[in-house]
Specification:
11 strands, about 50% strand, mainly beta, about 120 residues
Length: about 120
């Protein structure tokens, strides 16, 4: 059974940092693109960042560019999201996702596997 398990969320003050982790089990994703999404209350799930299977390519939503960094460790089957200079509008449940393919995509429907999410709350 494939599982993606996020960790690292929590409560932080504006301007602070958090590092999210997503550990995969049940299969290896070393040849698959992976991404992070988030969903705030009352809003649709939105793309945050994606990374290619070999880390050569990354892509970010404009709202997080320059503040968030995605990375991965294929040996550990884990993807990370380093979040710096956090803002109250970053408050959301953050989801890790994996594609069945290799290309970077931003659409929710382009990802095949999802974690349960981890809450990030940024206070002002």
């Amino acid at each position: 059974q494939v599982q993606l398990v996020e960790s690292g969320g929590g409560l932080v003050q504006a301007g602070g940092s958090l590092r999210l982790s997503c550990a995969a089990s049940g299969r290896t994703f070393s040849r698959n693109a992976m991404g992070w999404f988030r969903q705030a209350p009352g809003k649709e799930r939105e793309f945050v960042s994606a990374i290619s299977w070999n880390s050569d390519n990354t892509y970010y939503a404009d709202s997080v560019k320059g503040r968030f960094t995605i990375s991965r460790d294929n040996a550990k089957n884990t993807v990370y999201l380093q979040m710096n200079s956090l803002k109250p509008e970053d408050t959301a449940v953050y989801y890790c996702a994996a594609r069945g393919g290799t290309g970077l995509r931003v659409g929710v429907d382009r990802y095949d596997y999802w974690g349960q999410g981890t809450q990030v709350t940024v206070s002002s």
